[in-house]
Amino acid sequence: MTDPQPRPLSQMAPEELVALRDRQRSAHGDLVAEGLSLDVTRGKPSAAQLDLSDALLRLPSSTRDRSGTDVRNYGGLQGLAELREIFAELLGVQPDQLAAGGNSSLTMMRDCLVDLLLFGGVDSPRPWSQEESLTFVCPVPGYDRHFALLEELGIGMVTVPMTPDGPDAEAVAALVKDDPSIKGMWIVPTYANPTGSVCTQEVAARLAAMETAAPDFKIFWDNAYAVHHLTEDEAKSADILSLAAAAGNPHRPLTFASTSKITYAGAGVAFLGCSTDQVAWYLAHLGKGSIGPDKVNQLRHVELFGDAAGVRAHMARHREIIAPKFAEVDRVLSERLGGYEVASWNSPAGGYFVSLDVLPGTASRVVALAKEAGLALTPAGASFPYGQDPEDTNIRLAPTMPPVEEVTAAMETVATCVLLAAAEQLTKEN
Amino acid sequence: MTDPQPRPLSQMAPEELVALRDRQRSAHGDLVAEGLSLDVTRGKPSAAQLDLSDALLRLPSSTRDRSGTDVRNYGGLQGLAELREIFAELLGVQPDQLAAGGNSSLTMMRDCLVDLLLFGGVDSPRPWSQEESLTFVCPVPGYDRHFALLEELGIGMVTVPMTPDGPDAEAVAALVKDDPSIKGMWIVPTYANPTGSVCTQEVAARLAAMETAAPDFKIFWDNAYAVHHLTEDEAKSADILSLAAAAGNPHRPLTFASTSKITYAGAGVAFLGCSTDQVAWYLAHLGKGSIGPDKVNQLRHVELFGDAAGVRAHMARHREIIAPKFAEVDRVLSERLGGYEVASWNSPAGGYFVSLDVLPGTASRVVALAKEAGLALTPAGASFPYGQDPEDTNIRLAPTMPPVEEVTAAMETVATCVLLAAAEQLTKEN
Description:
Two copies of one chain form a homodimer.
Chain A: H1 14-34, E1 38-39, H2 47-51, H3 81-91, E2 98-100, H4 105-119, E3 135-140, H5 144-152, E4 156-163, E5 166-167, H6 169-176, E6 182-187, H7 201-209, E7 218-222, H8 240-246, E8 253-258, E9 270-273, H9 276-286, H10 295-305, H11 308-337, E10 343-345, E11 354-358, H12 363-372, E12 375-376, E13 394-397, H13 404-427
GO molecular function, one term (chains A, B): DNA binding
Organism (chains A, B): Janibacter alkaliphilus
Keywords (chains A, B): DNA-binding
């Protein structure tokens, strides 16, 4: 349903806009009548991706780890050394800077926040809960679960723009310099959710070294997509632990990763990487509520991969499955929306998302129109604290889960809804 | 090294005591020279017990749960319905009163305490952290990890005696009646750690119905050994959820269980059972830090057991392995200590522990002497808050892990050390 001669809506005469609106309204009506059932809301791996790890179902072949310990029994709070070695290499940290845990890095993030609230960190003058107020810097658009976690814990949020090179570091530095209530920040450094941004070495160095009024400022460095490349040009995550240590702030970063989008999304292994003092701090609190992680599952992963190269080879197979879906998003959106100047989106080199910016003020309407047409989109505003996108412009697209034909259909629907919402807005009587 | 004519030490003349002491000292010296290396410190399953569940290593055979959901992907925060059904039957609750989680019920207990502190419960006037002081009632002797958890979180502890029928309910009721700072209590209702006590229906009913000054009093009902029988006379856990609901206190109990000592100690599944309102409360907070439990491992357990009868049959095989070890503890202690009246111990009908009471004032000395002889015992006092046994009399024995020959050797050593420490104390110059 491509328009014969796409040109910017801002240059169209009122009658042209009305004609465009009516064509899109008709197209949308057709979609509604079709009764589609499509979903691009969450960054879930597809069944084909999960199949890549099905050897896990018959592993481990041994019940002892390298040290001879029976993995079926209690103990080993820090996680299997051999698994930590593999992921230390991939994450650019030392194995003793890494704890391997359960199936969720989000759980580790919440645990760290809770421990900071209740006990304070290794460099805190007091538990965070004793501060008058607490605020985190949140680059936007960002990850909705990060924001929900802060909201639950009563930690305020202040936003800074996400740039293609990572968070706007000068904006962060200006905020944290004089305000001791700003205790931390979120960042997805590599292939950010949802913008696909990769934090450069320079931005990371600035964040690692910047002056902070809070002596115990924490960078929550959620490296969820560290090895999740969509092209052969593989981004290397900045070495935030070394940068922070070199700047005299060794305890500033808490880094997180997991195999959720490497093996099984519900049955993988999560990692926390930080200074060894902070590993000890984390384990001391963890140990009050745990006698050790699921070492059987950790050994399963060791046997599946063998080594870091095994993980890289595994990720190349993921890329073969999902890169065509991202290409399809770009193809359809370019074909359908190119020339109208009502939307922009990124072509990420990795990660799980496409960040789509539509005509300001229309994102909620696009999501509503899509819903009518049987397409579930992430709620507008989800990429902002409290679900409030001040411009009502950003929509997160997650194309990995559906088969590629459904991605095509979903993006056709998105395009129609984006155009319709824009034309509606521009033809609204004032 | 049985004494020729055992009789109560309290009736021995000083020279008899000296002779006894010197004989035990010599026996102890022989043990030290032997260079044993024995450990009865922790309630860990033995390798033979873990072997019973090795079918798990090749399960699940399917990747879909009963509803057709792919267990390899995210989601399903409450845990697999079919697994909850099996354990609901075993624990005497409804499936919707149960959440199935990760590998540790201790983690669930800590999560509940943390959520009560930060947010308050469904029946709390305010978050617990906003109370001036917080205290839990702790039946003693009890489980050291319960006490350590409270200590970490700054929750005070007041003790009541553990009786063969469970906690001294009248003592609990007297404490909680007028003091609103007493917010909860611990109880291991079935085959308690370490006394083996089974909480009767009457005691449970009293605890469920007693008047509490705190409107949001919680019974942390750690049913770790619900199905861990050592005899054919299988204790039935009191139905605390129904009793509490009937008494108008439906939100009072938070019950916990796990498969840690049913399948694999590090790789099992944990359960929280409580009112459906509290399940919702728990999941709402859990969901901020988790996208779901390891459903693959939950399905693994469903396939291993099939149904509740499968679990019971499995537990009978555990009993065959460990009951002889408990019998051996009783045999050796009876043979070696009978008649001296310096020690008493229980013969549990289930669970993982024997609680040994030695001559008051000598428990620490017994543990130290055992250590010299190469036998690791749980530190004296471990079964009391802050590790302080006011009588220095209790020692927890955990005989499941070592092979039976080692249990024999360990108990021989214990007996020698108990006698030696008692004789030392009674021959001490005042």
